[in-house]
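To the team - T4K complex, inputs and output below.
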Amino acid sequence: MSDEPIYVTQPWLPPLEEFMPYLQQIWHSRILTNRGPFYRQFEQALCDFLQVEHVALCANGTIALSTALHAAGLEGEVITSPYSFPATAHVLANSNLTPVFADIDPMTFCLDAATIEPAITPRTAAIMPVHVYGNTCDTRSIKAVADKGNLRVIYDAAHAFGVQDDAGSVLKHGDFSALSFHATKVFNTFEGGAIVCADRQTKELVDKLNNFGIADETTVVAAGLNGKMDEFKASLGLLQLKHFEQLVSRRKMIDASYREQLGDIPGITLMQRDGRQVSNFSYFPILVEPGYPLDRDSLYEKLKSRGIFSRRYFYPLISNLPMYRNLPSADPANLPVANAISNKVLCLPIYSALSDEQVEKVVGVLKCH
Ligand code: T4K
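Output:
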């Protein structure tokens, strides 16, 4: 068996010869950025592929979230999930908004709609839920709470590329959905991201905010930043799209194989998937419960000693980070489910190049203690 390290993920890249014609075109045209031809083609291709009407490309997922917040024109508090990557709360803090943490659902690990309403105050401006691991939030209940309180909804959809619920693309919900195309994501352009906007006017505003607020050569309408995607990444994205479905079907096989082999280990709980949804199988989290002979961190270390680099996504919880833990909503008593799950979660390796042999190696370590 190969001794190659097994990481939690490994980015997939198309064969270099498939990418060469795109690079030649860029080298020939010398249009490198500022909404060139590949940028426009990729935007349209994403609209078609994701079944949404308005996509604005961005330099990364963090800029996508931050630009969406800017476009929403918010002030005050935003109710969000502590169970996410730090970027989710950091974009709020960096936009002078106060994160207000609410608890998560124990099945989907997404913001629990029932915990949102009690967190609303006169200063609440928006809700920022996260579609964790590609599971979908309870979008209907979130819409009902948002409509009642006249709140904007900005979905952190960094994990939700290609995910569908019973109504179609999950990216259609809310005022904005922000995607990440980071190297570690199920769909990557090295770095990259996009904002799915509800209408054309909003997409045009987002495009301006992502280009210094420039409307034309002599008109600057807002204090925007530079959040654009360049032609290299846009062309890579176009090519990656052609392979996406094939890569997801390999992930689906790995997910099924883990489920079959790990399903009956005492003390290991697998995350359930809602069969009505189309998943992207982007992560494979397990919960290491007291019935397992090792605690989560000991299992993490044991896997590491065998060259298997699992990850504790999402530990530590954002609400326990030094810059947030003094907020009243960060009190662990307010977030019992998120704290419990964060302390026992472990994401196992899943990516399209992971071989059956490597899956067996991971399973073998979990079974043998
Ligand atoms: N919202 C959510 C919910 C997110 O999860 C994220 C990002 C964002 C927002 C922000 O989106 P971006 O601004 O990043 O587009 C990684 C990623 O850097 C981050 O994008 C991602 N979430 C997060 C869940 O994971 P790290 O610090 O765990 O990554 P790193 O470098 O330790 O990589 C993990 C493993 O992947 C490595 O052990 C090996 C492998 N790897 C990684 C890279 C970068 C490779 O094989 N090749 C590579 O180039 O954060």
